[in-house]
């Protein structure tokens, strides 16, 4: 299974923010849209990722206040990225190694979407459930086939 398979099911809704936008506004957008991340774009290119983790780290660093902090100061400026052709097992490994919950998907330099650890886990569970159903159906039908051959 590849990242493109997840994006096809998930859809293409995507939320971005500019690096010079106020962190308070970006956080309000995240809360309003009930999302855990924003892709930081500048002049059409990915420059970072803002997740609730970076927001919390900023709050702690500033004594519980965001103040006039800009997204640029809080964002992860070296986020993990993948392509639509990246295998899900590779994405899972990368996310676990870096404790990343969100990963932008780029095709060349074009942002195709963002996948979350939840998206990856759901895809794996759905795939396993389908495989289990197929195996159970095969096992359930197997004796009938053997009986037909013997008759």
Name of the CATH first level: Alpha Beta
Radius of gyration: 21 Å
Q: Architecture in CATH?
A: Roll
Placed side by side, the strands forming the largest sheet appear as 1-2-3
Distance between the termini: 41 Å
Describe the fold and architecture.
There is one protein chain. With 151 residues, the protein is α+β, with helices and mostly antiparallel strands. The chain has a single domain, classed as Roll (CBS-domain). 52% of the residues lie in helices and 19% in strands. The protein is built from six helices and five strands, in the order αβαββαααββα. The chain has helices at 3-10, 23-33, 52-61, 71-74, 88-98, 117-150; strands at 16-17, 37-42, 45-51, 102-107, 110-116. The strands form two sheets. Strands 1-2-3 form a three-stranded mixed beta sheet. A two-stranded antiparallel sheet has the order 4-5. A hairpin with a 2-residue loop joins strand 4 and strand 5. Helix 5 (88-98) runs antiparallel to helix 6 (117-150). The longest helix is centred in the last third of the chain and has 34 residues, at 117-150. It is elongated, with a radius of gyration of 21 Å. The model has no long low-confidence stretch (mean pLDDT 89).
């Amino acid at each position: 299974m590849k990242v493109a398979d997840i994006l096809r099911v998930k859809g293409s809704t995507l939320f971005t923010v500019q690096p010079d936008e106020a962190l308070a506004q970006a956080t309000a957008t995240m809360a309003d849209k009930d999302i855990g991340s924003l892709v930081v774009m500048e002049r059409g290119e990915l420059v970072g990722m803002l997740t609730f983790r970076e927001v919390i780290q900023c709050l702690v660093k500033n004594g519980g206040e965001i103040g006039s902090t800009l997204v640029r100061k809080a964002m992860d400026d070296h986020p993990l990225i993948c392509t639509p052709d990246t295998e899900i097992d590779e994405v899972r490994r990368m996310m676990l190694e870096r404790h990343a919950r969100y990963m932008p998907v780029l095709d060349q330099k074009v942002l195709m979407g963002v996948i979350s650890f939840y998206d990856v886990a759901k895809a794996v569970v759905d795939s396993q459930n389908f495989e289990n159903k197929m195996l159970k159906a095969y096992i359930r039908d197997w004796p009938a086939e053997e009986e037909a051959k013997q008759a």
